[in-house]
Model the fold of this input.
Amino acid sequence: MASNGGNSTNPSHSSPADAGNSITQQGFKITTRKLPILKAEPIEQMTAKLKIAVPEMIFGDNLISIEHPASGWGINFNTFDALDRVDKSGASMLQVAHSREWQSSREIKHEEITDVVKPFDWSYSTDYKGTLQMRSPAFEPSTSPIPLELLRRPDPILFFDEVMLYEDEMADNGITLFSCKIRVMPARLLLLCRFFMRLDGVLLRIRDTRIYVDFAKGEVVREYVAKEDSYEAVRLKLATKRQDVPAQFRDPNALSDLLPVVDKTLERLVVK
Done:
């Protein structure tokens, strides 16, 4: 398993012509690349290297990156490294408990469920916080949060994009996906990379990594927040709000405020 925030050894299947879209703002270069779902041969290569079956929809060449060439700092989010953080042992007690509950609740309708529950985390849950560029200075623990008041300003958006890394419908029993959104303003940027998993009748899980950059200060803040709760607890919360429960269960933004935080880290660095 790759170290979280370490350097990637992911082989690229894309060509120089697939460089993607980019913008440079006050010394920071932001790049996004969106390509089609991987074909059979690249999927086989990725599966062999990861040593787990890949999700149904795998965008193995997609990428989002932030670089500061003058200092050598950079971070990117790519599919291989995100999946390399998935538990490949199946030894997680929390995961085993949920998979048994899922199997028990569907043993009549889905007799083939034992073929779905593989000896790895079949929810593809990942705590991936990004891959640092070689020779990048390291993040350090911080207590200074991302300045939300600055992000709420009606600043013009110079660049916006959304990049999907992978998605799987968990044998029609929910959804699991990893996606990234970035918006670049004249003085700052915000990148949100979100893992979202809904296992129907069992569990909801959101793991957000936010990268905030203040261009003038050269300040980079990385915030990681993991949230989760039982499906029933969230259903009851939604029912009290008299909202469209099925629709809300499909909306991670609506669910995020309802889930309790189970893990959080805050880090920063300054590049020059």
Summary: The mean pLDDT is 86. Helices lie at 40-50, 79-84, 93-105, 113-116, 148-151, 231-240, 245-249, 252-256.
